[in-house]
Amino acid sequence: QQQVRQSPQSLTVWEGETAILNCSYEDSTFDYFPWYRLFPGESPALLIAIRPVSNKKEDGRFTIFFNKREKKLSLHITDSQPGDSATYFCAASAGTGYQNFYFGKGTSLTVIP
Amino acid sequence: EAAVTQSPRNKVTVTGGNVTLSCRQTNSHNYMYWYRQDTGHGLRLIHYSYGAGNLQIGDVPDGYKATRTTQEDFFLLLELASPSQTSLYFCASSDQGAEVFFGKGTRLTVV
């Protein structure tokens, strides 16, 4: 069973638009939700993360909106830039015991100038 | 900045061949992971470890062995490589409840 689901699989937006990437999860014990960004040839790198004590986390142009009741979250990228073109992975983990991150399948974002 | 170094960065082997992927972290992290990344599948956990000598099975372990020889070093072994194991492999490390740091990946091709 897929623990973390992402949609859409790919997304194309124009420069300056807001890109919205969606994520949902199965396990209600998950308590940490990071988003990783992967540029081709590079390492996946932490972009922004949220814990369920908050329903919103903002960092510059990147905002996570979190709905614990529906077990959904979304990443909003405002004023999208061509340099934001990358694959974005939503992940989830439960912080107790061993740490196993469950990653979604990723959303490939293309920003057209 | 946390450092995770993978070697080799690229590898081509034949079906049935023996391959070892290496990973070293200098972050003093307890947890180390091996993932494979495939289009349409995202990042899938193969094996992980929470300390030297420890090994835990991930979600897609078939055809892979792993060994954590020290806190710094984590190896992934493919003893009879198959074309289905052609993939981009990422090693990562973390402390419990903290950010995961990834290496730059090893692209493995099995012909």
Features:
heterodimer, A: 113 residues, mainly beta, Immunoglobulin-like, six-stranded mixed β-sheet, five-stranded antiparallel β-sheet, 11 strands, B: 111 residues, seven-stranded mixed β-sheet
Describe the protein.
Chain A has strands at 4-7, 10-14, 19-25, 33-38, 45-50, 56-59, 62-67, 72-77, 86-92, 102-103, 107-112. Chain A is an all-beta fold and 113 residues long. Chain A has one domain (4-112): Sandwich (Immunoglobulin-like), CATH 2.60.40.10. In chain A, the strands form two sheets. In chain A, strands 2, 4, 5, 9, 10 and 11 form a six-stranded mixed β-sheet that branches. A five-stranded antiparallel β-sheet of chain A has the order 1-3-8-7-6, with no helix packed on it. Chain A is globular. The relative contact order of chain A is 0.34. Chain B is 0% helix and 52% strand. The N and C termini of chain B lie far apart (36 Å). Chain B has 111 residues and is mostly beta strands. The model of chain B has no long low-confidence stretch (mean pLDDT 93). Chain B has a single domain, classed as Immunoglobulin-like. In chain B, a hairpin with a 6-residue loop joins strand 9 (87-94) and strand 10 (101-102). Chain B contains no helices and eleven strands. In chain B, strands 2, 4, 5, 6, 9, 10 and 11 form a seven-stranded mixed β-sheet that branches. In chain B, strands 1-3-8-7 form a four-stranded antiparallel β-sheet, with no helix packed on it. Chain B has strands spanning 4-7, 10-13, 19-25, 31-38, 42-49, 56-57, 65-68, 73-78, 87-94, 101-102, 106-110. The interface between A and B is medium-sized, with 23 and 26 residues.
List strands and helices in order, with pairings.
The complex is a heterodimer of chains A (113) and B (111).
Chain A: E1 4-7, E2 10-14, E3 19-25, E4 33-38, E5 45-50, E6 56-59, E7 62-67, E8 72-77, E9 86-92, E10 102-103, E11 107-112
Parallel strand pairs in A: 2-11
Antiparallel strand pairs in A: 1-3, 3-8, 4-5, 4-9, 6-7, 7-8, 9-10, 9-11
Chain B: E1 4-7, E2 10-13, E3 19-25, E4 31-38, E5 42-49, E6 56-57, E7 65-68, E8 73-78, E9 87-94, E10 101-102, E11 106-110
Parallel strand pairs in B: 2-11
Antiparallel strand pairs in B: 1-3, 3-8, 4-5, 4-9, 5-6, 7-8, 9-10, 9-11
